[in-house]
Write a sequence for this structure.
DNA sequence: TATTGTTATACTCTATAACTATA
DNA sequence: TATAGTTATAGAGTATAACAATA
């Protein structure tokens, strides 16, 4: 009896990427959990750090999260003291969401987990191999139309 | 104002793998959906094809799915006519799950979707680049202790 | 006493729709 | 009439615990 799949998918690019990628996401979430920061919250924090204040609707659009789900997410982050809601002067329906100093410190605490996962994944590769892998992945990501820094899981169900 | 993240995670190996991998899984699921085959069902079908008959408990162990969840999964596959439950002669508590001819045809129908996703992901790369990427991914997968052909999502929550 | 398959229940997360206040 | 934020409800999917039959 053979152990080779009829479809041979196990060694395909698509399956390997999906398999390794899923494990990468798990490792990251596991490292973040003790900090009380979900991957989704990290996504919002990072976006605010990179691109400055956003309204909830703008954040929802940028990250692909539905604005209904953004409410509880911002509630949670506000309760942690990481962001602040302020009424927009231009449009009094909207809130401007801004990072607090505590929010910036929360982002800083994620550097450790990021470095850990990076090492767990790339630790077996030589420096030039890591560079090659990164460049190839960036090309594939671009071909797929993926926005840098925006994770597909942020928007919910697969 | 800069557009570069403070953590620089967007261009890290870990994030790129997670991002591209998530999209790969989505593409695969999208292609499978019209066939009425979920990624999880495909995982079970493939395992049966590769390794022959298994009891539900053996399938659960091999794929990391809890045996409680295996029940409805096998129910569904049996209703489609893709597998058959037969009482084990050795152990009359257990069912041997076996592929039917219709089950093998279902697997055959997945070859198209697999090829499509493979092309969507690797289409921009040269032949030698695809080979390089595959080899690097296999090494990372091995380092992470991933079992060939077994997807982490099969076992449920992240 | 342990294990296989099964069922029931609770919990988490997400989708959908509707409401309010502003525009 | 449309939009930003909010809330409520329902649904899918999973974890947990218990049960019957068999080992």
């Amino acid at each position: 009896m053979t152990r080779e799949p009829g479809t041979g998918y196990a060694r395909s690019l698509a399956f390997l990427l999906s398999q390794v990628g899923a494990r990468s996401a798990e490792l990251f979430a596991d490292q973040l959990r003790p900090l009380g920061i979900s991957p989704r919250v990290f996504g919002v924090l990072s976006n605010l750090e990179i691109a400055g204040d956003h309204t909830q609707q703008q954040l929802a659009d940028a990250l692909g999260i539905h604005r209904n789900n953004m409410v509880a997410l911002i509630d949670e982050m506000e309760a942690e003291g990481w962001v602040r809601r302020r009424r927009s002067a231009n449009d009094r329906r909207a809130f401007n969401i801004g990072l607090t100093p505590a929010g910036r410190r929360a982002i800083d605490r994620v550097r450790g987990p990021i470095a850990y996962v990076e090492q767990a994944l790339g630790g077996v590769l030589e420096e030039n191999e890591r560079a090659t892998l990164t460049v190839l992945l960036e090309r594939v990501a671009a071909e797929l139309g993926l926005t840098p820094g925006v994770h597909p899981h942020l928007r919910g169900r697969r």
